[in-house]
Amino acid sequence: MKSFHIKSDPNQKDGIIDLSKLILENSIELKNENSLNELVEKIGDAKYVLLGEASHGTHEYYVWRAQISKILIAKKGFSFIAVEGDWPDCYRLNRYIKKYPNSGETAEEVLHAFNRWPTWMWANWETVAFAEWLREYNEKETKNHKIGFYGLDVYSLWESFESIIDYLDKKDPNTKQTAIKAFKCFEPYNDGEGQEYARATRMIPSLCENEVVELLSKIRVNAVNYNTDPEAVMSVEQNAQVIVNAEKYYRAMIKASAESWNIRDRHMVYTLNNLMKFHGPKAKGIIWEHNTHIGDARATDMVAQGMVNVGQIVNQQHEDEGVYSVGFGSYQGAVIASREWGDVMQIMKVPEAEKHSWEYELHRLYAKDRIIFMNQNLKKEIGNIKFGHRAIGVVYRPKYEYLGNYVPSKMPYRYNAFIYLDETSALHPLHINPDIRQLPETYPFGV
Length: 447
Prior knowledge:
Elements lengths: L18 H7 L1 E3 L7 H7 L4 E4 L7 H18 L3 E4 L3 H11 L9 H6 L12 H14 L9 E4 L5 H15 L1 H14 L8 H6 L8 H14 L7 H24 L5 H20 L6 E4 L2 H4 L15 H9 L4 E15 L8 E5 L7 H7 L5 E4 L2 H7 L4 E4 L15 E4 L1 H4 L2 E8 L23
Parallel strand pairs: 2-5, 2-6, 3-4, 3-5, 6-11
Antiparallel strand pairs: 1-8, 6-7, 8-11, 9-10
Helix pairs in contact: 3-6, 7-8, 7-11, 8-10, 10-11, 11-12
């Protein structure tokens, strides 16, 4: 790791990086939505725009991603938003924003039904506001040009089974029996998150693999006969693919390796590619995921662990079509998270960033609320320096974040741009506990 020093005295010897001057010369102040014009200009004709977040529970990350997405949709003709969420849940929101029959009365109603932990990731007022904007925008679009909203993740095994069985009950009763057979294979291990199935595969390594592959194959063969909305057909195929890859994910989860992570991120890219194909040759996609997924893994220590991620794979596959990634981060503030997996959500303080981390250095430079462009100047001057870059997950313990919440990163190679916010606030969930409608008194309606 290359060491560096910040130049604070203009009389210091050459060779010491003047990080303050470097950042200020290659960034702009983020004041309001008009400040995003230069970012959108630099995105240019890219077909893939990846928008990150340093946590899954920060208000400002959701709001700024939504604002960037609105401009890209309105001015650059983007086709859909694909997020780090479950396919069945997000597809219901997709139906609502496209005003499909019986798709719900309000975005709040649809999003409140997102009851699998961590609910706050999408069941929040920030997403409600963006979904209502999408629905209004789609009012003036023709059927084939309405903006979509989809989930890329692999976790929805049981929900995808439910969606498939319900669909096949009406369209393909014979294949429905194959779906029920596959479901019954998993049923003894229905603990919600796949751990029981993972443990069972120690004894029988391919426990339900054949059943789910057979289901996917039959759906693909018979899909041409379903004679229904093409998007509904695409959705049932995607649910079958989720089940196949979820089975692989849970089977790999029991091993102490990077394979389960890689299966998940490869599945998300597979889903993204399917969405691009479905939306046609002129399609453009906006991806919302955590920085650890959209920032190129090759610029981090993830590569030493044999891990790949969405940012790396999309760059490798689609560089010629244009890929632009934007990371997010802040120095301090508040966040929604849980102290244990499956625990209740709560507002937590995000402490001041660790010394010499990326966020710490930006704070020291008084780079408050800036868009930093990772151009050739930054690559030349600090491209070989690994900064600790904060990453907060759905499970967070602020007192111990120095033990594992910083990813060593060559920042100019991890993103094309970085949005730095000096202080951020907590997201505004629709409910505190799954299946309980409860809004804290301290949460305002407005976002």
